[in-house]
Structure formats: structure tokens, C-alpha cells
Amino acid sequence: MVDFLIGLFLATLIMALFATRVDRLFAAYAFNSLMLGGLALVIGSQLNDLAMLMTGGLTLVMKAIAIPYLLRYLTQKFGYERQIVSDIKVQYTIMLIPAILVFTFYLAEPITHMIAGNANYVAISISALFLSLVLMMESRNVIPKIVGFLMIENSLFLLGISATDGMPMLVELGIFFDLLMAVVVINLLFEKEGA
């Protein structure tokens, strides 16, 4: 089940790279967060970790429902275009995705012996981080940059739960505080871009 959810997590990130409309980009982020929350719930139930279960529930509510709703509301409020124009050609993106995946598996190979769980999860988390950076760089529009930043947050969260089989509650609360600050910054960016 964990392999399936991590595969869908990566697939939704790749889907976001090819999104040409804002609604599809938000849907890809919501589904990405849904997979992350489900993954936290599955790992938390396997480890009998109440903190991880609470974090999975908070991820489902905040990242999969509240933040996409807020982003959709802000784009309607400030009247953003629904089309997303990418500065990187689709052909280059298609070549870049496998290159990043292969590179991160080689990058994670030296640390695989230090990880108790599946080392491929760490490589997938790092590749998701790089793909999120590509999402941020591929457009001049502020919306893909914001969603890319939020997906970087998801990738770091996936790295934390897959590399350590759970995180301390203090770290998880720190991540949610960072996410709250990100929402404040997102609101400021929308207001600046919309003005």
C-alpha cells in the first residue's frame, strides 16, 4: 500500500508539471496532498504512532482541502488567467523528468545502507523535491511558483516520514507552522501580482 501511495504521489507531481490550466494544477496539488496524508495514516497505523495519525489527518484537512480551496478563492478574487503558459517546452520537460529520476536514484545510493526502511522512498522524495523546483521555474506566473513551493513542502514531509519511519511531533508542528507562514506569503504574492 505504501508503494502504491508513493507512486501516486510522484505521478500527481508529474501531472502538475504538464498542467496547462490553474484548476488542474490545484487539483494535482490536492491529490498530491491526499496521497501524502494517506501515506502518513498508513505508516502511522503500521507503527501505532498516534502523532503520525494526527499529522496524517491534519494533512488531509489542511493540505488536501483547505489550501486548494484558498488558492482557488484567491485566483477568482484577483481575476487570474486560467491558462498557464510554460517557459520550458514540453519536449524538454519530458526529457528532464527521467533524467531527474535517474539522477536522484544515483544520488541516494550512498546513503541507502543508513536507512532502515526502503531506500527507494528517499530517492523518490528527493526526485519529488527536484521536480517541484522544476515546477517553480517553468513559468513566470506566480501560481505555479506557489504550488511548486507547496509541493516542495510535501516532498520534504515525504522525505521525513519515509526516511525516519515517523517524525517527532515537534518537527511535524514546525512543518505546519511553516505551512501557515507560506499561506500568509501566498496571500501577499496574490495581492502584489493582482494589483
Topology:
Elements: H1 2-17, H2 22-47, H3 50-77, H4 90-108, H5 119-137, H6 142-164, H7 169-194
Helix pairs in contact: 1-2, 1-5, 2-3, 2-6, 3-7, 4-5, 5-6, 6-7
Write up what this structure looks like.
The longest helix is centred in the first third of the chain and has 28 residues, at 50-77. The chain contains seven helices and no strands. The chain is mostly helical and 195 residues long.
Offer a quick outline of the entry.
The chain has 7 helices and no strands. The mean pLDDT is 84. The chain is mainly alpha-helical.
Low-confidence stretches: none
- Taken in chain order, the helices and strands follow as HHHHHHH
The overall pLDDT average reads 84
Morphology: globular
Task: Give the % helix.
Answer: over 70%
- Annotation, overall tally of beta strands: 0
Taking the alpha carbons of the first and last residues, their distance comes to 46 Å
What would the keywords be for this entry?
195 residues; single chain; mainly alpha; 7 helices; globular
